Amino acid sequence: MRPYGRAADALRTIEIETGVSPYAEGSCLIKCGNTHVLCTASVEENVPPWMRNSGKGWVTAEYGMLPRATHTRGRREAAAGKQSGRTQEIQRLIGRSLRAVVDLRKLGERQITLDCDVIQADGGTRTAAITGAWVALSRACNWLVEEGVLDVSPVHGQIAAVSCGLVGGEARLDLEYEEDRVAETDANFVLTDDGGVVEIQATAEDKPMPASAFDDLFTLARKGVKELVGIQRSAIG
Asked: Which residues fall in the annotated binding site for phosphate?
């Protein structure tokens, strides 16, 4: 039995509230069950030095977890003086996932930074961050069009992300922490609304995952992303 009696192919309850940060050009609070992530998109009229005079913009991301996002207090990484390897890996994943659906030339020589801050964690924080970051990014680009800075939005596609895993030999969609920590295999899928693959991360514990099991997880992921992109569209109007 899954937590809260969910079916194996069911997402957690998903909510996306937009416009939660009055100062950011784009923002949303995404809630995937008990995982809550605040996503803001900030537009800057400059690019990294290595991109100057290229005629292209840049999309990047930063990710972090608040100290009491989990059951015990985690030390702020700023206090430690460095980011963990996990944090660096996740924010790079978010950045390259978003860049896959942005025309950087149409963005012009400006940078959009996605800040994804985990308020509450119960598994799937990176996938929730990617799904919410796309909403924040889209709203920021729409703002650029509304302000007359751009003629058209540089966002040319839609992406969302979801986790899947094998728990007790059963393929399950959108794992919560209690499932994730005992899963024989866990995977994160970043997919486009038309079924394109942006990135897949999959890891087996103790023994290799059968190819047929991966096919089952991929099928679940496609179903989950189809539902997520519908929720995204409703959120941005």
From this structure: 86, 124-126
